[in-house]
Amino acid sequence: MVHGFHVGDTSHPQAREIYRELDQLAAKIKEMGYIPDTDFVLHGVEEEQKEQFLFQHSEKIAVAYGIISTTRWKPIRIFKNLHVCGDCHTAMKYISMAIGREIVVRDSNRFHHMKNGVCSCKDYW
């Protein structure tokens, strides 16, 4: 299954379910110790809004879609045409722990295989 997502994308027919899953993921990984790195958001925006913007990055939308649309034992594969931001990298590691699944993110530089909270790049991204 291949789908394309953009930052803040709400055009997908399952957008409500995707964003509901994303909200649940955000709460779950925050409980696990994830702290959003708002340095990856534009300046001049309130801190709370920065967190919202971080969770609208395309790779986070894609992973939420992968969770709701694929079987639990399959890895979630995401291809990104840009470099993954540091916050998304950290969040994906937490998400892999939270859902007990492998997440593979291919960005413009390398493959990131995240499993049980660890990335194959050893955080050299």
Descriptive account of the structure:
The chain has helices spanning 15-31, 47-54, 58-69, 86-99, and strands spanning 76-79, 103-106, 111-115, 118-119. It is globular. By secondary structure, the chain is α+β, with helices and mostly antiparallel strands. Helix content is 41%, strand content 12%. The protein contains 4 helices and 4 strands, in the order H-H-H-E-H-E-E-E.
What keywords describe this structure?
125 residues, 4 strands, globular, single chain
Question: How would you summarize this macromolecular structure in one to three sentences?
Answer:
By secondary structure, the chain is α+β, with helices and mostly antiparallel strands. The protein has helices at residues 15-31, 47-54, 58-69, 86-99, and strands spanning 76-79, 103-106, 111-115, 118-119. It is globular.
Describe the secondary structure blueprint for this structure:
Layout: H1 15-31, H2 47-54, H3 58-69, E1 76-79, H4 86-99, E2 103-106, E3 111-115, E4 118-119
Parallel strand pairs: 1-2
Antiparallel strand pairs: 2-3, 3-4
Order of helices and strands: HHHEHEEE
Q: Largest sheet, order of strands side by side?
A: 1-2-3-4
Question: Main beta sheet, described?
Answer: 4 strands, mixed
Output the structural class.
Answer: alpha+beta
Strand content: 5-15%
Number of strands: 4
Low-confidence stretches: none
Termini Cα gap: 26 Å
Radius of gyration: 13 Å
Overall shape:
globular
Report the helical percentage. Answer: 40-55%
What's the average pLDDT?
Answer: 90
| DSSP helical segment count | 4
